[in-house]
Design a protein that fits this description.
By secondary structure, the protein is an alpha/beta fold. The protein has nine helices and eight strands. Strands 1, 2, 3, 4, 5, 6, 7 and 8 form an eight-stranded mixed beta sheet that branches. The chain is globular, with a radius of gyration of 17 Å. The N and C termini lie far apart (49 Å). Bound molecules: S-adenosylmethionine (SAM).
Length: 248
């Protein structure tokens, strides 16, 4: 099996979720991060549960095609598992994670994995798009943009979300999350996220969505987004929600 010489946040998340699709370098980075911050597994389980609720909400609205950016490892309750009737194209920019994802999904005829830079939807292979997100631009789809906003500066994020809005058909949904300011109190952990990493106060989220309209649930701490039961008592590290491109 292929090894990685650098850790990836996506594969660190797989480790925290109890998955098997990561490398020793990811485990070492995850443990170092926990040494600086504290336990991460409960937070990422909550984030993945939010993904499941958001994706099931989109599927219940009749959407059966999903385009996932910054997808990471396609297991542990990821999109095609939350919406098993749908077709799903996972994309990422990290070559090791892409190859891992392709290996995991090799037997699937409903989900595929390819290169895609979220900041330029034109980088997604049109053949994969056509196969797994049929009618892209003409039929409503679910655009999944989770774990990614924190790695884009405000101008790039706002432009990217606006371009996705323009490209997606009316009736499409955007599932999105933002990192709050939890790491401000943990400077060593914050430094480990690298210079690109952006924390944002909740007031900053709305303007970045541009023309996407949040559902009435709002953009809230993920544990409080349509919780299945009493929300877990966890720090508000991630805020997320659904937004739509209105029909007609
Ligand atoms: C924190 S991980 C999130 C993985 C997954 N979405 C999740 O929530 O478990 C961020 C992922 O975004 C990817 N990424 C970073 N910049 C990107 C970009 N411009 N376009 C697409 N993916 C990007 C990274 O390679 C990484 O796999």
């Amino acid at each position: 099996m292929e090894e990685a010489d650098r850790p990836s946040t996506a594969r660190m998340i797989d480790f925290w979720l109890g998955g098997e699709d990561h490398f020793p370098v990811d485990v070492a980075a995850a443990r170092a991060f926990e040494g600086a911050y504290g336990p991460c597994a409960p937070l990422f389980r909550e984030l993945r549960a939010f993904l499941g609720r958001a994706v099931r909400t989109i599927a219940a609205a009749g959407v059966d095609g999903f385009l996932v950016f910054g997808a990471g490892v396609p297991t542990r309750g990821n999109v095609h598992e939350a919406a098993p009737e749908a077709t799903v194209l996972y994309t990422d920019v990290d070559p090791v994670t892409i190859r891992l994802g392709q290996r995991i999904l090799a037997g699937s005829d409903r989900a595929g994995y390819g290169y895609g830079d979220a900041t330029d939807v034109g980088t997604v292979d049109p053949a994969l798009l056509h196969r797994f997100v049929p009618g892209w631009g003409r039929r409503p789809v679910g655009v999944v943009f989770l774990g990614l906003a924190a790695f884009l500066d405000d101008a790039t994020l706002a432009r990217t979300l606006d371009e996705l809005y323009a490209a997606a058909a009316p009736g499409s949904f955007l599932a999105v999350d933002f990192d709050g300011e939890e790491l401000a109190a943990h400077p060593q952990a914050l430094a480990m996220m690298g210079p690109q990493f952006r924390m944002r106060p909740p007031a900053a989220f709305g303007p970045l969505l541009g023309r996407w309209t949040p559902t009435d649930d709002g953009i809230v701490p993920v544990a409080r987004w349509r919780p299945d039961g009493p929300p877990a008592d966890l720090p508000d590290a991630f805020h997320g929600g659904l937004a739509t491109k209105r029909s007609g």
